[in-house]
Specification:
By secondary structure, the protein is of the alpha/beta class. It has one domain (6-42, 89-256): Rossmann fold. It is 43% helix and 20% strand. The protein has helices at residues 6-16, 26-36, 45-56, 79-86, 90-103, 117-125, 138-150, 163-173, 188-198, 217-228; strands at 61-65, 74-78, 107-111, 130-135, 157-160, 177-182, 202-210, 234-237, 242-245, 253-256. Strand 4 (130-135), helix 7 and strand 5 form a beta-alpha-beta unit. The protein is globular and about 50 Å long. The two termini are 17 Å apart. The structure holds S-adenosylmethionine. S-adenosylmethionine (SAM) is lined by residues 67, 86-88, 112, 114, 117-118, 135-137, 140, 162-163, 183-185.
Length: 259
């Protein structure tokens, strides 16, 4: 995240963020202890971080499609640079692992595979779930596929292509959705479009995770709109992640939690 509003945003977040004492919802209290604050060193963490370390030292170069550029231009990029710039940090990967472990979803989708670091954290927490990870850059997705084989995670389904084309097919293939990680296109319009496309599929146990909700003022506006959605019940602001739960038995309430 690189924007000049971040330091101000962070101070505002720290003022609002609550620890365990301010949480009166039993569900959120449990989420806070088991997902946000838990320090367990799960068995799968070390191999994923070992893979990241190897990627950081890779000498390979792959062809990448840049979806931020006009005309989705292609260019060659060092694997180590992609790993350093795009992959989720270990602290956040671990949080995703604990969240998936806590929610035990059946159908999971990730928008934005890159080299597959976040995919692995989520998949390893619930390997029996149907995990679909979507990536527009074919070279990047293939490289992630190799990483999945190395990590014995062959059951992950990779979908390759621009979200514009692949998302309708993915949605059609799913009966219901229990988990979506939005980490592909951090623009308000696109984020809102993807959010609304998944909404009709959400199960009662579903959670949506939005990465980089403060990446830009535009993205923060999207997050503000998302928490107003009537079918979203509990929503949680963890500064860079935004979590949205849809359990209709829960009271609609927004939490800003210290992470
Ligand atoms: C931040 S990276 C994902 C990082 C990954 N989740 C991780 O933490 O390891 C975002 C990825 O989304 C892909 N992406 C961005 N816009 C896209 C689009 N419109 N269609 C398909 N893929 C897209 C990019 O190619 C990039 O690899």
């Amino acid at each position: 995240m690189k924007n000049i509003f971040l330091p101000i945003q962070y101070i505002a977040y720290l003022f609002k963020a609550r620890g365990a004492h301010g949480i009166h919802s039993p569900f959120v209290y449990e989420l806070y202890h088991k997902v946000v604050k838990d320090k367990t060193e799960f068995y799968d963490f070390a191999p994923i971080e070992h893979l990241r370390e190897r990627l950081h030292h890779s000498k390979e170069v792959i062809e990448v499609v840049d979806f931020g550029a006009v005309g989705n231009s292609k260019y060659n990029k060092k694997v180590k640079d992609i790993a350093k710039r795009s992959a989720i940090p270990a602290k956040e990967g671990r949080l995703l692992f604990r969240l998936v472990n806590f929610m035990q979803p059946r159908n999971m989708v990730e928008m934005g595979t890159s080299l597959g670091i976040s995919t692995l954290y989520q998949h390893k927490a619930c390997p029996e779930a149907n995990m679909i990870t979507m990536e527009g850059s074919p070279g990047t997705s293939s490289y992630a596929g190799v990483n999945f084989r190395i990590m014995k995670a062959d059951s992950i389904n990779r979908v390759v292509g621009d979200f514009k084309e692949t998302l309708p097919e993915v949605i059609k293939s799913l009966p219901l959705i229990d988990y979506v990680f939005f980490d592909g296109n951090h623009r308000k319009e696109a984020t809102m479009e993807y959010f609304h496309k998944f909404l009709p599929l959400v199960s009662d146990r579903c959670v949506f995770v939005f990465d980089d909700i403060r990446w830009s003022t535009d993205m923060y506006e999207a997050w503000k709109e998302i928490i107003e959605e009537s079918s979203a019940t509990v929503t949680v602001d963890l500064f860079s992640f935004g979590l949205v739960f849809f359990n209709p038995t829960q009271v609609k309430q927004h939490f800003v939690l210290r992470y």
